[in-house]
Amino acid sequence: EPEVTQTPSHQVTQMGQEVILRCVPISNHLYFYWYRQILGQKVEFLVSFYNNEISEKSEIFDDQFSVERPDGSNFTLKIRSTKLEDSAMYFCASSEGGSVETQYFGPGTRLLVL
Amino acid sequence: AQKITQTQPGMFVQEKEAVTLDCTYDTSDQSYGLFWYKQPSSGEMIFLIYQGSYDEQNATEGRYSLNFQKARKSANLVISASQLGDSAMYFCAMREWNTGNQFYFGTGTSLTVIP
Hints:
The structure holds 2 protein chains of 2 kinds. Chain A is an all-beta fold. Helices cover 0% and strands 49% of the residues of chain A. In chain A, the strands form 2 sheets. In chain A, strands 2, 4, 5, 6, 9, 10 and 11 form a 7-stranded mixed β-sheet that branches. In chain A, strands 1-3-8-7 form a 4-stranded antiparallel β-sheet, with no helix packed on it. In chain B, a hairpin with a 4-residue loop joins β8 and β9 (74-79). The chains are: A mainly beta, B mainly beta.
């Protein structure tokens, strides 16, 4: 069964460093998303991406964040200058359509900023 | 106001018993979808079940069923015949037709199945 994959599974970085989190969505899906989950808290929406552009973003997704689909399979989240409070689990998700279609989540990348 | 409310931070259930996890939602849209995800201790988010706002029948997927009460804006998850592997966090989520593609998640319920 097709699934969303994410790399790396864990990332440790120093405050102020740039990190890139990678995702491979399900191949026939057209909508892509990033969410984050701070330890012990609920999952929060960051951004959605469709047709090679951001379709929606939350207030969390400020100028230090960016997303890209550099080729036909990868979908990346870049954090330009990490802060301690960026430590969280980051989930990539994809869906076949927008609206109320089910989103399928990847296994997550656990980011720790020291 | 919270879009999704899960009032049970933790629940215990005896193995082989049924358990209901509560979820209420808030939306003014007529068209929306309700979802339940399971998050085991390993961290991944596993899709369990979906209910569309126009679906007249309650959704069922194996041992999972969704008790959808539209007038009360509730979408409770029922797990029948609990198994030890059901121990996990469970998140209720909603997407609205008219207000974008994001999921709104609740704070989750931690379910522990007791042998």
